[in-house]
Structure formats: C-alpha cells, structure tokens
Design brief:
homodimer; mainly alpha; Tetracycline Repressor, domain 2; 71% helix; elongated; DNA-binding; HTH_TetR (chains A, B); MT1864/Rv1816-like_C (chains A, B); transcription (chains A, B)
Chain lengths: 189, 189
Amino acid sequence: MPRAGLTTEKVVLAGADLADEIGFAGLTASELARRLGVRTASLYSHVDGTDDLRKRVALLALAELADRGSDAVAGRSGHEALVALGDTYRGYAAEHPGRYDATRLRLDAQTAAASAGPRHAQLARAVLRGYRLSADDETHAVRLLGTVFHGFTTLELSGGFAHSTPDSQASWARILDGLHHLLDHWSTP
Amino acid sequence: MPRAGLTTEKVVLAGADLADEIGFAGLTASELARRLGVRTASLYSHVDGTDDLRKRVALLALAELADRGSDAVAGRSGHEALVALGDTYRGYAAEHPGRYDATRLRLDAQTAAASAGPRHAQLARAVLRGYRLSADDETHAVRLLGTVFHGFTTLELSGGFAHSTPDSQASWARILDGLHHLLDHWSTP
DNA sequence: ATCGCATCCCTAAAGCCTTTAGGCAAATCC
DNA sequence: GGATTTGCCTAAAGGCTTTAGGGATGCGAT
C-alpha cells in the first residue's frame, strides 16, 4: 500500500478545510482520518489528538486572517481602511466559516501571546491612526471595532439576519458608515 | 434505593447549571448523569440524548434572557432603555456563561420560530422606539444593537479584554454612549 | 543495485460516551 | 392490599480517543 505522505502541515490544512465543510465543532481526529484515507491512530504521529488539531487549526486561521487584514489595510486610511478591514473579517468568515469559528477557540495565555492574535489588535490600531484619538480612547475604539466586526460577522453567519429585508449587506454598509461617523466624533459623542 | 425524582424540567435546569459551571461545550448526558447521581441511560426517559439536552438548555436560556430583557426595558426609554437592555445581556453572560453560550446554538427554523428568539428582536425594537427611525433604518438599527451587545459580550467573555487598561466596564459605557449618539443621528450619519 | 535505516502507517487493545432494549421495584390509584 | 404506571436500573452494541508496538516503504549510502 502506498503511503499517504502526510506531514503536520498537511494534516492541519486538511483539518481546516474539513472544518469549513462540516463546522469547526465537528472537526475530530477520526473524521479527518476518514477524509484522508488513513487510520485514526496514524494521525497521532503528526498531531497530538483532537484538541491539538483544533488548536493548530485555530492558529492557522488567525495567521491567515491577519495576513489578509494586513493586505487590506496597506495603503489605505480613514473610512476606506475601516471598510477594507471590516470586509476582510466578514469575507473570511463567509468563505471559511469553520476556520473563522476556530479563531474563537480559547487559547492558553502563552499560546495566545505567540499567535497572530496580537497582530489583529495592531490592525485595528492601524485603522484608527486616521482618527486621531487619545491613548485611552484608542483602546476603547479598538474594542469597539472588535465588537462590531466580530458581532456582525457571527450573527450573520449563524443566520440571524437571513430571510428578512433589507439584506444584510445594506445593514453592513450602514453600520460601517455609522462606525466611521462615531470615530470621527469620538471625543465629543 | 430511593428514586431521584427527576422530570424533564429538572434535568434541563440541572443541565443549564452544569453548563454554567463547566461550559456549554462540555455539557453531555453522561456528565450530567454523574452530577445527578444517576446512570446515563436513565436520562433518556426525560431527554432525548445529548443534542436534545443542549437544545432544551438553549431554549431555556433564550426564554430567561428575554424575561430579563422585558423587565429591564419596561418603563424606560432612550439612553436609559438602551443601557438597561445592554446591561441585561452583558450581565446575564457574566452570571451564566454556559447558558449564554447556549443561546447561540443553531436551531432549526421551526424550533427557532417557536423559541423566545423573536422576543429578543421585539426588545430591540422597543428600545428603538425612542429614536424615531424609518422602517428600514429601524431594521438596520436592530442589527446594530444585536451586533454590539453580542459582539462585546462574547469578546469580553472569551477574555479578549482582560489584562489591559482601561477596564472593560469603561469601554462598555463609552460604547453605549457612542451607540446612543449614533442612533440619535442615524438619519444623517 | 541493494543494503541499512528512519519513519510512516498499520493492527491491537483499553477506556469512555452514546444510545437502545428490557427488567425490577417504587410510587400511585383504586 | 393489589394492580398499574413509571422511574431508574443492568446489559450490550457501536463509535471515538488514545497508547503501544509491529511491519513495510522509501531514501541514502555503499
């Protein structure tokens, strides 16, 4: 029988794709082994069980998303940068729902610090550079951006906005405009 | 051996409490049976397995949260109502993290329609009544409220705002003030 | 070319969770 | 007090997780 030629990287990538197909919650070692045409036990050479697999998929997704965010923000500022970053999150979630879910996995402090997580905060701060806020206000605003991007994305993904008019794209545009206005007048709300 | 005297209601309530303790993802029939001092198979008279248990906990949490929301909004309007409703979600999530997680379980359309879910949309509309918006704008605003309440709550719950200053309460107050301002000027952003 | 070797994937097995089937006894109703 | 309901039990089958150890495969060296 020929070998499958697996590596940790290939296993994690296949796990991310599987999560996108069947949902991050359904990602298990045995299901992934079935997908790869391999016995479950064979995955244990590459990944330390289901929990480790999920954690690695989460780290992959965080990194991929941060990369896209960097691309989106580069060379833009103000309203344009805000929309570009927001669309990055929303688009990634629509394209890769399993990976996006994975980014919300609870990581221990050490793993989180070494992940691409901090890069996401940097992206928000980069967008906010165009709005000239005080240090404290910038922290509040970083949290507001996280709140709106993450909140809208997950509600849309979970079907909360489906089957009603106007469509969610219109609300998204409206909300981003509102967010821009709010940031422009943050010091005098 | 004396009987435990279980009913479906008691099982679901105990399940909700267990979810608050160990997390909604860890809520399983066998773990709950252990907690109740009963064999796993015995739960199957009251609940149709782990999935059904989780669904019932979700429905319970949605109803409890809607009840609290109704209390919070009653007799208030404008900024006061907005803060009261927001604090209800944030407070419930802090007090009952497992139950709050349960409210985000994907329900099939029929179950969702019969749940307390629609009451939550009504609560948002009740708060928005004080802001005099057009029909379409009100829908956008309902989604904005859901976005902000849900987004902030989950990020805070997942530890995203921990270990940094200023504390998250300050950001929450700031964000609610901003939201109020935004709703007051919604038509001319 | 083939020998040696690292390692990749396998079989085997133990443990836990889920779920169904059927039985005994406790509470309830007459 | 006896019959009935029903709540909780034991038993068992099937699947997922994880560990231990074995055989084959592909690569590099001779």
